[in-house]
Write a structure and sequence with these properties.
51% helix; 185 residues; 3 strands; globular
């Protein structure tokens, strides 16, 4: 007996628009939360990788994260992320080695805590479906749309297989339309 698989509706998971990203920055609230938003966006790192970062892992415009399978990789911090981290770390009065800590507990933030923080920022900003992984999708999509080679995006995200990178970074429909108007005359 032949059983056909059930077709599941495929929805393209959308990155943040640049306007949504600015709204999140504006509504981040504390210095810590602003630094979280900037680091998630700049690095494209997974939430667990960001939660696992120590202060000593950040040096200048680079940071070391430990990804899936405890693989070490370097991620990069843009000017906004470096400034946000400098302000946040300058405001801390604790001795914890973790990069991001609870505002009261002064202990390393868990993945659940960081996800909750990002959802709360999204709610204040009026941005629906706001979660840390969406920053990863956003940085990949924007980098590709602005001309970064897919192999470099793959490396930035720490993907073993380039096919995974293409899933994360589907082009925005607006970009396809704009390029259609540019190239198909």
């Amino acid at each position: 007996m032949n059983i056909k698989s059930i077709r599941k509706e495929l929805r393209i998971k959308k990155p943040f628009t640049e306007t949504e990203l600015e709204m999140l920055r504006k509504e981040s609230g504390s210095l810590r939360n602003r630094a979280i938003v900037e680091v998630l966006y700049s690095t494209g790192a997974r939430v667990g990788e960001v939660c696992g970062m120590d202060i000593r892992d950040v040096e200048g415009d680079e940071a070391v994260v430990f990804g899936k399978g405890e693989k070490e990789r370097t991620v990069y911090l843009n000017a906004r992320a470096r400034l946000a981290l400098k302000e946040y770390l300058g405001s801390r009065k604790d001795n914890c080695t973790a990069l991001f800590v609870g505002e009261r507990s002064k202990r390393r933030l868990s993945k659940n805590a960081m996800e909750r923080i990002v959802r709360e920022i999204g709610a204040r900003a009026g941005v629906t479906d706001c979660h840390p992984h969406r920053f990863r999708r956003t940085v990949a999509t924007l980098a590709l749309n602005r001309g970064m080679p897919i192999e470099q995006v793959q490396r930035m995200l720490g993907h073993e297989d380039i096919a995974i990178t293409t899933i994360y970074a589907k082009s925005w429909e607006e970009t396809v339309k704009a390029n259609h108007m540019k190239y198909v005359v």
